[in-house]
Amino acid sequence: MNYKKAGRISTAMGIVAISITLLMDFFTDGELNLFSGFVIVFLIALLCGAATIKAVFHKCPHCGGALPFRSSVGNFCKHCGKRLE
Ligand SMILES: [Zn+2]
Predict the structure, then answer these.
(1) How far is the CA of 30 from the centre of ligand 1 (A)?
(2) pLDDT of the chain along its 85 residues, tens only?
(3) 3-39-37 Cα angle (round to 5)
């Protein structure tokens, strides 16, 4: 997995998590029950997974330096200055 794919996957996971959060009120009718408990656990797992993917794979392919945590990284690594593909 390269850094672009990792960025896309973790962004997609974040969007899914936000969508579920927005829909949760609709599903649970504003009340906490067993189902909403499962949804909250799933959301936390999703966000942890997204953060882990970013932390592990969102790196410069040349020097391994961590890339910024935003979607537009730019064309050059801020650590080694080499072009990112
Ligand atoms: Zn680099």
Answers:
(1) 47
(2) 888 899 899 999 999 999 988 887 776 666 777 878 888 899 999 999 999 998 899 889 999 998 886 656 678 898 999 998 7
(3) 135
Tokens standing for residue 14:
């974040």
Question: Separation of 49 CA from ligand 1 center, angstroms?
Answer: 24
Q: How far apart are CA 37 and CA 45, in angstroms?
A: 12
Residue 81's Cα: distance from chain center in Å?
25
CA of 35 to the centre of ligand 1 (A): 44
